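Hi V.,

Quick status before I head out on leave. The structure for the redesign project is tokenized and pasted below; the design run finished overnight.
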């Protein structure tokens, strides 16, 4: 006999009570596919109207996404969702409207953008009008141009976001050293030497991420979080979701996230054209400085992703992300020899080509736990 879970029953009651207060108590409720995050979503349907319910209970554990704390586990809160929604709306982005919220109980009723992400449009192969690869990535870059102009016009002042410095990025990369390198460097002496050299590399490279200045970043800006949303005029807007971890950070951060996405590699030609389009909107930015900052930022993102893959494989038993490892290394090294030789030298010295593939998980592994957060958050 299955006994009811008191905590789950209590949460179900809180959700229903919230929906009653919003007038959605009679809606059909369907859970959406979630990842390893404690944040869950439900689609609500009544007649011809829909909405989404975000459920992020305050007693859940949320992993600090910003590299602020040595101990990354923090209490959950929907407050960042409410704050960043208002901020990005001021910046001119099309973000889901907040229809109701109960911050104390961690419940938010938000506008439903539907299911047509840029990823799904790309998979349709341009069958939908104006959804070819070039057109979609151009729309995505246009949104960054609009946001960064908002920043350059004073939008960052008193915005209430975490302000990154190199130390934030250094903390984010702890998992690469602790969770991934032991998978590919068995010898402890060699691994210790590689980590010491890596720390020296970070001393040199991390400040370069700011060489082109800083802006507000979405922090997880890629085609899975961009959507085609009907605008009522016969067209569609670029809808943007999952921005609750926004911060102030290096200017190329979101562009590198979009154009060097390990799950959707677009190749160097389209990547270069999109960068040139972005730079044409900001003629005062020195192109060489921007390229160095872009490659340095891409390095940070992809080393952090490798750390995430290592943690998920060893601590959560999930090895499916190993298929992306060769692409991660390709993205880390793309342009490094010319623009960031110290990075190229570190990889050549410590990570031979045959170590840039999926590691062999059959051999024993002794890795200390590093909690790096949910698998969907890159």
């Amino acid at each position: 006999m299955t006994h009811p879970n008191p905590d789950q029953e209590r949460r179900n009651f809180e959700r229903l009570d919230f929906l009653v207060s919003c007038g959605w108590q009679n809606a059909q409720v369907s859970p959406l596919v979630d990842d390893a995050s404690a944040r869950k979503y439900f689609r609500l349907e009544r007649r011809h109207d829909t909405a989404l319910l975000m459920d992020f209970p305050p007693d859940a554990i949320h992993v600090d996404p910003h590299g602020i704390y040595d101990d990354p586990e923090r209490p959950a809160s929907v407050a960042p969702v409410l704050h960043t929604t208002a901020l990005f709306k001021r910046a001119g982005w099309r973000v889901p409207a907040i229809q109701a919220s109960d911050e104390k109980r961690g419940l938010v009723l938000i506008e439903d953008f539907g299911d047509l992400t840029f990823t799904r449009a790309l998979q349709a192969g341009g069958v939908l009008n104006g959804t070819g690869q070039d057109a979609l990535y151009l729309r995505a870059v246009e949104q960054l141009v609009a946001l960064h102009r908002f920043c350059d016009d004073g939008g960052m002042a008193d915005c209430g976001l975490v302000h990154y410095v190199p130390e934030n990025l250094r903390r984010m990369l702890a998992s690469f050293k602790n969770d991934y390198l032991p998978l590919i460097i068995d010898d402890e002496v060699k691994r210790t030497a590689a980590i010491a050299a890596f720390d020296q590399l970070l001393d040199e490279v991390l400040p370069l991420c700011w060489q082109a200045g800083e802006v507000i970043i979405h922090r997880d800006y890629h085609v899975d979080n961009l959507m085609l949303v009907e605008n009522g005029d016969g067209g569609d807007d670029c809808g943007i979701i999952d921005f609750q971890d926004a911060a102030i950070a290096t200017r190329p951060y979101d562009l590198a996230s979009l154009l060097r996405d390990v799950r959707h590699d677009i190749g160097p030609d389209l990547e270069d054209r999109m960068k040139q389009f972005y730079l044409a909107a900001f003629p005062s930015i020195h192109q060489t400085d921007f390229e160095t900052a872009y490659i340095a930022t891409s390095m940070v993102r992809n080393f952090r992703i490798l750390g995430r893959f290592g943690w998920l494989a060893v601590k959560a038993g999930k090895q499916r992300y190993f298929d992306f490892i060769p692409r991660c290394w390709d993205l880390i090294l793309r342009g490094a020899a010319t623009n960031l030789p110290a990075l190229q030298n570190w990889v050549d010295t410590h990570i031979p080509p045959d170590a840039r593939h999926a590691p062999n998980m059959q051999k024993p592994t002794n890795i200390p736990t590093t909690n790096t957060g949910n698998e969907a958050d890159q």
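Above is the designed sequence. The radius of gyration is 22 Å.

G. will cover questions while I'm gone.

Best,
W.
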